[in-house]
Amino acid sequence: MTATVSPWLKAIVGVILLIVVAPLVVPLLMSISDTAYIVFPPRGFTLKWYGEVLANPEARGSFLFSLELAAIVTAISLALGIPCAAGLTRYRLPGQDAILGLILSPLIVPLIVTGVALLQLFSLLGSRATFAQLIIGHTVICLPYVIRSVSASFVLVDRNLEDAAAIMGAPPHVVATRVIWPQVRPGILAGAIFSFIVSFDDYPISMWLADGDHFPVPLYLYTVIERSFDPSIAAISSLMILFALLLVLVIEKVFGISLARLAS
Amino acid sequence: MTALAATFAKDPEFRGAEVRLSRITRRYGDLTVVNDVDLTASGGEILALLGPSGCGKTTTLRMIAGLVAPSSGDITIDGRSVVGLPVHKRNLGMLFQNYALFPHLTVLENVAFGLAMRGVSKAETSERAREALRLTRLGNFEDRMPAALSGGQQQRVAMARAIVYRPRVLLLDEPFGALDKKLREEMQIELRQLCNSLGLTTILVTHDQEEALVLADQIAVMRDGRIEQAAPARTVYERPTSRFVADFIGTSNFLPAVISGESGGLTLLQGADGRLFASAVPNDLTAKDAVMVAIRPESVRLSPGAVPAGEANAISGPVLRTVFKGQLLSVWIAMPDGGEFVASLPIEDTVQSNPQPGEVWTARWASERTLVVRGQ
């Protein structure tokens, strides 16, 4: 691209980047402040708040629990979402639009409402299986992300390539692994990342369904904020931000797929 | 290239398979897309399915490929029915309109795909894939990605990929549609040589009559799901049996007429305004059939002046306009009934006498060039 970019466009992009990135930088800076309370700009430099958080068994337990939950939810969302997306895009089914609307509806209904509804449902059923309830609740909100990004990649699959492969002697399972999979892989990975992060960051669903033994990081963070106001809150926030960043970088390195390209 | 083709076709026993369609029909709901088609492509022959869009030619090809199942009828390849045999077990090659190259594989990997599916060893696969690429004059492009190639080069990769495992039948679905005219003509000649030297049975779908004439030994003209005429390419051009075929392949002047008799191998016909026609081209039509006389513009000789009364195979009238087309000059003559009659003169013939608009000229043609076709 050799076209000159208008200075106005540059300015607008700059402002947008600032609005998006600045709030993420603030907790990072606050977390290294050598003060007994949160202050911005930070005073001094220390990593003791990170040490404190990481040494805290409650914080560690919440973090590990959130990881476990997000991993299970992502696995289930992919297992349900990939066939669903494939079916909705590759075949004409009666009531197709209604099915898609239903699946995507958790994106539209406020999460807090979905959470209350699930809580009522589970209590009606007399369920006490908190872990299973959290998995179901998170899957309900993660599945739309998986289906959306996987559908988008299935729509772009060139059916001629499948025909060509079959004619050259590829049986259906080989067509699936060697022709369809390379085309939908970016969409599936994007869906997996979204699902993992949505589950890992979720507060409004977990708020209704969690209990003391199943306590995700966002809830833990909230209780800490209620109790105290030292920079360890910023340290927890920073860890969550860095973790998400790390996840994206690892995916880029391992799979050679840039999120920027997926989004385009 | 022929020498390479010879080394490529190491198996001297190799022959393309005979493909036979018997009473093939395909319905989609109430819509009959292919209707009771009988068709044979002999071993090593190039057959073109020619027709306008929606005539069922692509569906027919896809049924041979196994991508669409026939509603009824039978398809045999070398005498063995393939109805119900999955696509990947039919041992066919196919060229697609958009080439359908795998974008995530290199040129060599694309070409090697069919061999890998046949369990050919790695060493032999890469040797044969390279050979196929040399055959299609793409030897230096092995490691490129398809997106980095021009349309003509992609077409060649697709060709190499389709023939590398030596399928018994090659199917082509409008393979040159995306290429410009000059490149298309080159590729057509190249493909024809390749198919002939490899002895492949080739079935081609096209809406381009010129492409069918250049490539095919046999042409089957399709219309509304049926075969309108199937015959050697030249016969379809020189002896169309229906107005549709005469109109679709080449251009023709159509003049309504009724068969009035037969004399010395000539079919005699009477047209409007007392016009007389005599045709030496065999036909199986009778006085009861609705027929047309069809005259190709290039069969016509022009001379100045009006036609004497009672002369057969001639028409005269004032010149309406002339259009210069390079090798040809097209001349439109107004007929008494208001219609137009077009003649094409080789440009050399116009040096001496050049028809001018307004002048009365006469068009004459031989009885060997007087086509009698079914149709209104």
Taken in chain order, the helices and strands of chain B follow as HEEEHEEEHHHEHEHEEHHEEEEEEEEEE
Number of strands of chain A: 0
CATH architecture of the largest domain in chain B: 3-Layer(aba) Sandwich
* N-to-C span of chain A: 16 Å
Number of helices of chain B: 9
- Share of residues in helices of chain B: 10-25%
Write out the CATH superfamily name of the largest domain in chain B.
Answer: P-loop containing nucleotide triphosphate hydrolases
Q: Which ranges of chain B are low-confidence, i.e. pLDDT below 50, for 5 or more consecutive residues?
A: none
Q: From the alpha carbons, calculate the radius of gyration of chain A and give it in angstroms.
A: 22 Å
Envelope shape of chain B = elongated
Kindly state the number of beta strands of chain B: 20
Q: In terms of per-residue confidence, which ranges of chain A show pLDDT below 50 for 5 or more consecutive residues?
A: none
Oligomer: heterodimer
> How many H/I helical runs of chain A?
12
CATH fold call of the largest domain in chain B: Rossmann fold
From the N-terminal CA to the C-terminal CA of chain B, the straight-line distance is 49 Å
